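Why does residue order matter? Because the sequence determines the fold. Keep that principle in mind as you read this record.
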Amino acid sequence: MDSLCMNIRHYRKQRGWTQAYLAGEMDISRSTIAKWENAQLYPSLQDFVKLCEIYQVSMDKLYGKAEQNTPFLKEFQHIYKNHYSNEIEQLVKVLKKYPKLQENLYTFIFKNDNGSRSRVHFLTKVLKTIIEE
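Structure:
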């Protein structure tokens, strides 16, 4: 599934909306939203712009191309700079996609227990498991 489809679902769920609610806001059918989220159909340019307005995100962000340089990502990359691998790169991609997860992990790791490597290592394993599932 591509970033756009995942982001349409992510931002909808982040707001606690159902597909039916978003469809009502968009003035389209619920099945169209489901098809967007499952990569069976892509929104028209007009619908894409309307999604950005409803979600209040940039086109780049909804499309999945926005880069975020949060303190958590910078620290995470710094800690693992000598061990940076494809797995770590995948973790960073997941973290870029879910800013709220970043905030929570940043607080958990770096604002408690002085950011011990054992906590970072543990969370790396947890996130790796999430990616693989």
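The chain has a mean pLDDT of 77.
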